[in-house]
Amino acid sequence: MKRFWINIFIPVIVIILLAVLMNVVGKNITEKEFSERNVVAGRINSEIEAELAELEAVLADGTGASESVSLGDTENDLCDKVFQGKKDEWKSLYGSDNCPSDIRIVLLYDQVSTQTENQTLNQAERLDIRNGSIIKGVYVNDKLAGFVEYEFDSSVYSKLLLLMNIALAIAAVIILIYGLWIRSRLILPFNDLSDYPERLSKGQLTEKLPEKKDKFFGRYVWSMNMLSDKLERDRQTIGKMSIERQKFVTTLVHGIKTPTASIKLLAEAIATGLYDPEGKINEKDAELAGKIQKNASDIEDLIEKVMEEGTTAVFEYDPEVEPFYREEIIKFIDKEYSNKLRMNRIPYSLESEGNPIIKSDKDGIFRILRQLMDNAIKYGDGTGITLSLEKNEEGHFITVKNNGEPLPDTEVVFVFNSMWRGSNSSGVSGNGVGLYEARLIARKLGGDIRMKTGENCTEMVLFIPG
Q1: Would you tell me how many other CB atoms lie within 10 Å of the CB of residue 216?
Q2: Which of 204, 264, 332, 371 could disulfide-pair with 434, CB 3.0 to 4.6 Å?
Q3: Under a CB-based contact definition with an 8 Å cutoff, are residues 268 and 293 in contact?
Q4: Is residue 188 packed enough to be buried (19+ CB in 10 Å), middle (13-18) or exposed (0-12)?
Q5: Are strands 457-465 and 348-352 parallel, antiparallel or unpaired?
Q6: Of the candidates 253, 292, 248, the residue with the CA atom closest to the CA atom of residue 269
Q7: Rounded to whole angstroms, how far apart are CA atoms 343 and 179?
Q8: Whole-number Cα distances in Å, 453 to 229, 401, 405, 413, 457
């Protein structure tokens, strides 16, 4: 869990650092842009102040000046002379980005205008502070003579917008990559892990959960594998106990069966007067002998029932029939056995055409195939296993074929008996109930299993109607 939170914090920290970096870079760009533009505005302001100083001197002298001079004409003349006429020069000196796109002059001279103070303030309020604008005061002889608004292209905002988009794009890529990482490292593996307990309960698993380097689910994997080992040990213990139970019941039954038969014979002899000195039948003795015979027969019936139940494996299975595609069987075998066969270096081939629908109990078929594949691995010689899936008018046939010395023909008829193991089982783990249970499942599904032996090969054929 600690590793998970570390991996969560890493992209969060990266995005935070990216946001801080973008703020610092944006601030530097803004400050640099406005600093350079402020220099240009100050230079133009100086020329406007110089022109206004000359104009004030001319007006004060009264020579060469017209009494009809208007404030608007003066503002326009200053714009044309100081800025419009020298625009190319400003651009060449300071660059087109730092040069204003336009300027606007508002004068406050009492000498050239008879506006009241309120009118002057209203006129000054016409200057809107816009994006990319700088407003400077114009002074003549330390007296505020007016305002100049310098309008610039919003290139700085375009740069900031571009910078912000780049930052957002990088953050989106980080989030996308991290989302894909979470999907591949957490979500998909957990989907597989979440199926494990169910499949384990159904006996479909042959291999333990693999440990991964990231160990996100390390404790879960360890716990599930420990549970798998525990269930396997319990299954083996139950199998051994079933065998011991069978031996005990068989011994007990045979121990009771012989004296019970003797009791019946003795009772019959008494009933016929065989032991009477005169050879006569005593009615009372005959009546008691009949009761003894009946009780002995009851004991024999009970012995037969105990024998039948005691020598049969404990097994319960209720099929749940539903349609599914044959491809699911192939995926099951591949998922459960591909790695195991590769580790044991056993060649494996699959023969299947088409993908027909099978209407049966999928889990039951998986359980049968698990037993057949395990037997093929345990009792084969390791030179090859072939799985073939076919369909005809009768139904579906699934064949598991392995190379290796087959059982003698005299033993083939017993392979599906409970608690029976063949002559080739020496040194191989097992309890003799796997094929017995597999056939019971197949028959509950309306099908069957049969064994076919050939030259150095054994075939187990599962038939499912449909």
Answers
A1: 17
A2: 371
A3: yes
A4: exposed
A5: unpaired
A6: 292
A7: 34
A8: 34, 10, 9, 12, 6
- Cβ atoms < 10 Å from Cβ of 337: 23
C-alpha–C-alpha distance, residues 91 and 99, integer Å: 6
191-200, 364-373, 410-419, range with the lowest pLDDT: 191-200
How many CB atoms are located within 10 Å of the residue 22 CB?
A: 18
Dist CA 385 CA 255 (whole Å):
46
The identity of residue 451, as a single letter, is M
Round the average pLDDT of the chain to a whole number and report it.
Answer: 77
Q: Mark 264-291 as b/e (b = at least 16 C-beta within 10 Å).
A: bebbeebbebeeeeeeeeeeebeeebee
Q: Are 154 and 132 in contact (CB under 8 A)?
A: yes
Q: How far is CA 244 from the centre of its chain?
A: 45
At 402-446, the pLDDT tens digits run 998 888 888 888 888 877 788 887 777 777 778 888 999 999 999
Do 53 and 111 form a contact (C-beta atoms < 8 A)? Answer: no
Query: Can you read off the two tokens belonging to residue 190?
Result: 């957990």
User: Do the bridges between strand 448-454 and strand 385-391 make them parallel or antiparallel, or are there none, so unpaired?
Assistant: unpaired
Rounded average pLDDT over 335-339: 84
What is residue 262's predicted lDDT score, i.e. its pLDDT? 82
Laid out side by side, the sheet with 102-107 consists of 102-107, 143-151, 133-140
